Model the fold of this input.
Amino acid sequence: MEHRHSRASGRSEYFSCDSASSSEADHLDTGEGTEGGIEFTTSPEAIEMGPLQEMEKPGLDLHGTHSSPAIIVGTPSSPSPRDDKRHSWGFSSGGSDTHLSPDVNHATVTSMESFENLDHEALKSEAEGSVDQGLIRFGEKAENGKCCRYISATNETPVDLIAHFMSMKWKMRTPKVILSVISGVEHSTVFNNSKVADDFQKGLIKAANSTVMWVLTDGIDYGVPKLVGDAVAEEMGRRKLQECDPAIGMPDSVKPPTKLPKLTVIGVLLRDIANRSGRRGSTESFTKNCDMNPNHTHFLLLDGTEKRLDWVDFRNKLEDRFLTPVGRPRKYRTVTTGSDSQGGADTTDHATPMVAILVQGGLEEIDHTLNLLKRRKPVLVIKGSGYAADLVAFAYEGVHDRNDPEHIATSVKPELMRKVGHAFPSQLQENDALRTTYRDKIMECVGLAHDGTQTFLTVVDVTQWDTDLLQLSKYILQALFKSEKRGTGKQLVENILRDLQLTVDWNLCDLAESAILERYSWKKLNIENYLFEQALMQRDREEFVGLFLKHGFQVHKYLNHKRLQHLFENAEDLDLFYGVCLQKVLGKVVDPSEGLDKSFLEGNNCQLNRLLLRCTNLNNLVNPYELSMNSLESYVSHVEVAERKAMNTLVMWSALTNKIKLTKLLWQKVDDPIPMALLLSNLFTKLSKFCSDRDLRNQLRQYGVDFGKMAVDIFDLSYLDSPVQALGILSKRLPDYDNRSTLEIAFIGHNRVFIAHKCCQRWLNQRWYGMIVIRELDWGLFTIPPWLKIYMSAFMVFPMYVWLSFIPPPKKQTSFAVEQEPEEDETEKEEKEYLLKHLTSIEEKHKTESPRIRLYGLTTLKNAMGKMVFPKLPLHKQLYYLWNAPITKFWVNQLFYMAFLLVFTMALILPTCGNLYLDLIVFTWTGIILVEVMRTTFVKKRKYPEMTVVYPVLEIILIITFLGFYLFVRIIPHFVVLTGISYQFTDYQSAKFVMSLGLLYFYYRLLAVSFPISPTLGPMLINIKRMIKKDFFTWFRMFLLFMISGAITIQAVIYPNYPFTWEMLRKAFSRALFALFLTQIHDLEGDPVCTADYPNATLDFCGKELREPLISPCPYGGNVTYLIVIQYLFIVKLVLVTLLFAMFSSTISKISAESQQIWKFQRYNLIVEFEERLRLPPPLTLISYLFMLAQLVWQSCLSLRRSCARCCRRRSHARDRVDSKKKSHAKFQGTFLYKRTADFNYWKKTVKEYTNKEDQEKLEKERPKRDTQLLHSLIEDMSNQKKYNRKLNDRLGMLEKGLTSCLQLMEEAKHMIEKMDPKAHGMTALKKEHVHIYSRQSPYPDTSLERYPVLDKFVPWEIVHSTYDPSVYTKPVAEFHRNLQKFVDVDVLRLISPPILESTPPRGLEDTPDDQEVVNFRARWNAVCTAHVDNVMIEVDRTSWITENGRTCRYRLDKTNLPQNPKGRTGVRGRGSLWRWGPNHSILGVVTRCKTKKEEGKPREHVLQDGKKILEFITIQQPQSEKFELPGGIIHGETSPYSLICELFMKYVLHEEDVDSRIKLDKEDMIDFFSQFSVEASYVEGTKPVTDFSDAGFTAEMLYRGYMDDTHNTDNAWLETEVWNFHYEYGEDFSSRCQHGKFLWQDLSSQTRLHGNQLDIILEVAKIHNAHH
Done:
């Protein structure tokens, strides 16, 4: 199927390859008549192209051959015979030269200045490259896939040549807007948020459907270009579905689909991508940059390069070229780009507006964006899409939120550098120079964002809750408007109008108001007619209509009869206007395509007025001649009147074309909102009656209800604000509405709610009482009713002075004189009249007060009213006002009508033929009543054409019929009898029957002429009518079923032998019907006389003549008869009658409120009827007729006299009179218009209040929805904020960790500085109170566990550290040496539930041996105990060696009942790699000597340094760590500490294998052990005290016993050490005992390094021995 572009329809051109292979065969064939190319059937998106053949043109040589086998270009070899009718797809080639000439159908393409100056010879010389063109086919099969046009060019190809080809061969025309979507290939991904992606697609299509727009993308089938392509494909499918199937056809009353702009999506990409897409097989893997999106309409391919930067340059050149005209000319806007930032002059170009959208994007897109900003083109950045867009948005917000150079340099740029590297890790992570370059490019983009008042960079944050990408067109126009620099004068106005055109196209009223009209409010703008018409015609542009009217657009200058007819002909919804208004209402069948004929708007009696007359009963609502004259400013009346009439006409046009939103908006602008709302309500209600479509009928009926409600609401607001104004509008005649009043319009439309309004009822009360006011006087025990006061005042005259007062009418003056009075006086007069008319209600209010207060109040009011309260009117005037009041006419008519019924009753009740004189009175009286009814009906219909006369005409016919029968059966027989002639045509009984019918009618007539005026009986009559109409007839249909069946069955069983006659039927049905009221049971027992004969009547009796005639009427008595009668009576009397009562009760409860409205509505008709009646009732109306005849004769004489006098006057006098009349009329017009303008302003103010109230109510109704949306947005924001908070917490945690590390480093530096102090060396510092240092070092030894950082001030447990969260580590028992495992405490933390250790173990712990050991573990803290381990008694010392103030320290237990490190926090919780919880005791032996030099033959001498001896000490190498440490070990309790040190010394220093570990040595034994190695003395055990060894050069001294600051310490386990120094002053003899010599003597120097604080111990020893340190 082929779908081509049509200028008439404006639909887009989209191709399907099945049409290309058939209907376009001659257009796509090669020279051999076959289609050249390769089909890639294995690829889902194959590209078929043919080899480009050589194309020639005089002066233009285009070579299109390419060696690439993957690009197949389809070009026709011969011109198609249909080239003159169809658009060509490419250059044609054949045997003759091919000419590049414009199509004759688009010859205007050369009318543009840019095309006139286009030198084709120059194009030929500049075109060093080549241009390919053809079709790209996508799909499984090339002949069935989608087709897209393409052009392939190189960087050397002039872009003018490409634009020329697009205009000449593709028939493309310059768009109104160009949208460049910048997304990239490498960094274009799918949106993470599907809603954002959907909104982006919908917003883009909404913008494309609003105006002619070109969309430029990267053309790939991934990421953002794929989103654009998919949106276009979906929109094209939707458009095709809206098209009418030719086989089905389209109804005449249905308008074709709305004309939409052509969708143009151009993909600009490298040709290499197309080649790879074409070569790809079904099994070949591909990346996201190797596909072309098949849903683009056109492709522009760059050949000859694979570099993305070349592609960026190519796209930049294309964008620059598209800014100038392409194709047929369009009315271009003048865009002022402003002064160049480098100092260039202002430039003004005729350019197509272009906006770029940066979505995601990579490094090339940053270059592209920078290039656009340098060219001063607006860029819209979608923040939240990722990659380059987020980087530019971050830099822009960071700079413009705080434009501080220091902030930019220290905060924005470093963070931007980090983000750039994070966004493009593969390209920039290891290339600092390139990362810095692009950081600077982004900052340059931000620097180019603003230039004075112009803004070229706009950021839209999709993560914000108030951002809606459905309004993408709004953001695009905002970016465009911000980038413009307005000119001055005519250029400014032109730019403003063009911007308004764009806002109208894209339906952005709020933007038009805020960015254009309010921004340039200082300049008076004349809205062009085409803009206003476009707002009227296009869908959903009602806000623009209101905006234009708000800014002073004058409708009367726009609307003439031709434009009005054009609006009707081009209405969007033709179903109502053509299908209902013309066909159903006017009976005209009109083809929408042919338009309306001239008679539709020709003359005052045009078809439009006839249509409105039938729907509203108002004539001449539209005056086409006056509209046209006013549009030419040749005003028939005043300019305000012209504007008012034009606005009213426009409202009726919008209503007839079913533009309900526009109707409501225009209604708010009319001068008479209440009459217009009532008219529209009547219009829609009447039109709904002509609709056959139920949905449309219900819709129109609802519109009628809505406008009726609007009228009532406005009226109610007015009544609450100004009752005088509300009362005044009811009776004011409106010339624009057929000179009808508002109340009459409401009555015509049967708007019961409006007429039932309390203000209307008050106005009707005023009309009911006329010019009289009935006083309420308190007579004590009783109150005289108003009707009696009327009767007594009317017939006795004197009571009139007691019970009545009169309101004087205004002085008799012309309307001109009345209008000339000052407005304040008129208002004052109206207020006084209003108070006078309501004096009765005021007096009634004072009746409840005490007499004295009531009298004072009335006296004050009457004194304030002055003489107007009791005017001194002549008696005849008072009588005239009394008898002219409708209330007086009503009661007097009721009195005489009762007299008529009394006379009629007497004439009927008299026996036999009655009395001739009474009959003549009745006949004459009835005739006078008939005449009065006829006169009243005629007058009402002439004065009020909207009132129906069906019932009055029916009444006239009935009365005439009755008078005819009455005359024939009653009057004539009397005269015949008097003449002696026999009259046999009737009898007196027939006369009685006719008179009875007449009397019944005239009695029942009271229900229509008397009772409805009563506020009690009137609603009751309406209820009765509704009950009969709705309930009784429904019930009666059900009753007929039972009545017929009951009548037949009862008659058959009681009188089985009754003859079948009419008498039998009458008797049967009357019995069944009367059963509702009577219960006839006398014949149920039968007749004893004949009942006995029924048993003898066997079957032989049937068919024979009755031998006993008396049996036929004889009732039969039996059980069967009782059964049939009882079931019928039960159903009728108990069920049906009860059901009828229930139905009546339900109906009354439902319609009670409605019946009040109906009664109030009908009351208006009754009041009008009695206003038109004569002052005297029948039969006294004969007197009124005589007066009317005399008055008619007198008026005729006066008229004849005035005619004669007029003819005798001089012309000069007549001319002066005419001039004076004109001046008076002009003066009257000025005063009248002034008063009317004040009224209009008041009503406009009221409408505005009503609109604000409705808007507020609408907002309140939509508040839950908006709150829900806001809540969802807040939840989403909270979720995002949580993510940000987590990231921030991580950053803060890292910052806090870094800060803590810095503090720790500073503390370590401090400790190092303190150690440099000589006083801090040695054990002196350990013996003092200090903060442990090595116990806080990370990581924990032999693990990668990091300690929780603890600063010096938080080390003591007394200092609260709320965030202290130490790591937990306990070395498993199995990891210890097997010989030591028996001494290691179990891991009790594994089963402890913090913060309190449970007293009873949890269930299941006994299941495993390890858990059982934990449960059985019971430690005695701060005590020494013994235990059996492997049948060996060991001593477990859990006391602390730490002393405080000379007392042994008792360590505390934490909340888990575990020991707590007395020296404070360490950052690790648990046992660590120590063997016991709590204190872990160890012993160290420091074996030292002074370094000596030994020479043969000489004694040993000490080696000195700086005058001091050099200290040497023994270290041993640990087998696990291979580090050197001081001799020593842990105390397990198996031996004494002193035995342990001797044993370890012998093993690790002397390397003796046979050591007895069971020997327990004491302190003296230990000293003896070490003294034996002295070379100068030999010590015999027990002969000397220890102190005597000093002379031999050997000393032993305990240096320290207490807490050991060690890296293995934790919060629950720590080392405590006892340190001994064994010093050999003159030498030792270890070598004689050591066989291996693996121990090491080390010199104490500055390079000495030992584990932990063992170096401090050595330094202490050096200090003791005065050695160098």
